[in-house]
Specification:
globular; Rossmann fold; Universal stress protein; alpha/beta; two-stranded antiparallel sheet; 2 domains
Length: 278
């Protein structure tokens, strides 16, 4: 049995994360941990919402706190009801300290964490990739599945391969977590710089490895700048596709100089991403 953790903001609950998490837990016969990030510094209201005619109103503050508590409880009840309906093993965690620290800690004890691409854990709205998600991906201790705004059942898998250890490691972790997806249509996509490369890096070895797990996989080679070619190519594919990539590196310096492919895909596409790094 594996442990699947799904991150939730109880004040802005992600239905897409819930549906993907339940599907993953059912297929893998895993324990699903609903991680409700009830950060004590985060509320749905702003400071001026508490101000009355004579300054900060205790009655308004009490009303707003009660409303947030009820909203969070409603989200927890919905999660629990859906888990019971799906007949899966589940637990509920209410993490009340700083959200990013709590979620990183949860990732240490998880096989995978699912989180919505537009999660902010604040009352501010951001377009993906949000600061919270980017920060989490930089420090997470297990594979992550980034969930799009809308749920679509996964029907195809694209494995991004660039010859790096990280890209191969991501494929390994994906196969470990979701072996039943070997039966789906699978495509290995590589981008070559025409001025530097003529062949897929370690072509014989990667094909030998992939064929062991995805014997019907097809191979697509694109030429040009990977930051332009990959998003453009994936935009032509259905929303029912999951993309696997080893995008984030541990070194903060390398991240400063080189934008992650994951960032680009979250910014331009609304599809699920499976991300793993060493």
């Amino acid at each position: 049995m594996k442990k699947v953790s799904a991150a939730f903001d109880g004040l802005k609950f992600s239905e897409g994360t819930l549906q993907h998490a339940i599907e993953l837990a059912k297929q893998s016969k895993s324990l699903l941990s609903g991680v409700f990030l009830d950060d004590f510094t985060y509320h749905s209201y702003k400071l001026f919402d508490m101000v009355g005619s004579q300054g900060v109103s205790k009655d308004k503050m009490k009303h707003l706190l009660t409303a947030d508590k009820q909203t969070r409880q409603k989200a927890t009840d919905h999660y629990e009801n859906e888990c019971k309906k799906a007949q899966i093993n589940y637990v509920i965690h209410h993490d009340k300290n700083i959200a990013i620290h709590e979620l990183i800690k949860e990732s240490i004890y998880s096989d995978i964490v699912l989180i919505s691409a537009d999660e902010t854990l604040s009352h501010f709205e951001e377009e993906p990739p949000t600061g919270f998600v980017k920060d989490f991906l930089m420090h997470v201790e297990c594979p992550v599945m980034i969930i799009p705004r809308t749920y679509h059942k996964i029907e195809k898998v694209v494995l991004l391969y660039d010859g790096s250890i990280a890209s191969v490691f991501a494929i390994k972790m994906f196969n470990y977590m979701m072996p039943w997806m070997q039966n789906l249509g699978t495509e290995v996509v590589t981008v070559l710089d025409p001025e530097k490369e003529k062949h897929i890096p370690q072509a014989n070895l990667i094909k030998e490895f992939v064929d062991c797990h995805y014997p019907k996989a097809i191979y697509t080679v694109l030429k040009g700048d990977e930051k332009k070619e990959i998003p453009a190519y994936l935009k032509k594919i259905t929303n029912n596709t999951l993309v696997v990539l080893g995008a984030y590196q541990r070194g903060a310096i390398s991240m400063y100089f080189k934008a992650s492919m994951a960032d680009l895909l979250m910014e331009e596409l609304d599809i699920p991403l499976f991300i793993a790094h060493k």
